[in-house]
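Fold these two proteins, one after the other.
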Amino acid sequence: MLGVFDKMKINSLAAGLDTASVKNGVIAKNIANVDTPGFKAMDLKFNTVMKEALGEGKKLPLAITNEKHLPPATRTVDPSSFIYQQNNPSVRNDGNDVNIDYEMTQMAENTIRYNMISDITGSKFTKLKSIFSGR
């Protein structure tokens, strides 16, 4: 039986907020180290993490054939485990490969994504509040 948060996709939205938050930290670290010699830029692909969190394409055909069987566990995904090194070609003599223009573009995109998911989550809770209050 699905809970109210599952039916309203609030758990999926929470995973999206967590992933966007981790991505923001990765971008901030890249920007902070733009002048650090030898620093290699890191990245995190939002879509990859969310596909894993939502279990797309990796569903096992599980069936409960006995009342003593345990139900399938819900998947929790740690977005920080998806951080990887970008391996950009470095045009600087010090080996640093951070592209500040790319990072600022990623920051703007991620901020828009986070704000959108946050607004949707807020509207879901507003709906729940109105349901529970009977309005």
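Now the second one:
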Amino acid sequence: MEKSNFPRLKILVLVIFLAFSTIEAYTQDPKPKSAFWSQVRFGGGLGLGFTNGGFNAAISPSAIYQVSDQFAAGLSVTFNYAKFREDKRTAYGGSIITLYNPIPFLQLSAELEQLRINRNYTLIGSTNLETDYWSPGLFLGLGYTNNFMTVGLRYDVLYDSDKSIYAGALMPFVRVYF
């Protein structure tokens, strides 16, 4: 081994040793969760949609606070991509979500979403245009829930076909929270 690489090797071994020592120290003395964090559930949703001439994909991680057995509220971040013929849209943003279970297997939801949309499209004559704008959504949903997963439909009462990233106001959803 060359002499110039020896100090680097010593530093690398020291860094690896310290990293494993730190991990071991944290795993030996776990701190109990606070009352707040024991009520927080993480999860979110994945979306995939196909329409006549279009495609839409979304990822939306979120966290909710379980206020009671029937009610939860939380925050979500969203990234979405859509392509409808020559119209391409990407969006990012966030939402506030509330979930209510009047009976154990039925979930009602309300979600206020705000997305920043970047839209690229081609007009007749092959003129490319790009616009950026904010698009709000207010989704009211109904779903069947079983422990950690909910499957249902939601409706965007603020839907605008010219500005929304979604193909329609009525959309199926799958939510998972652990």
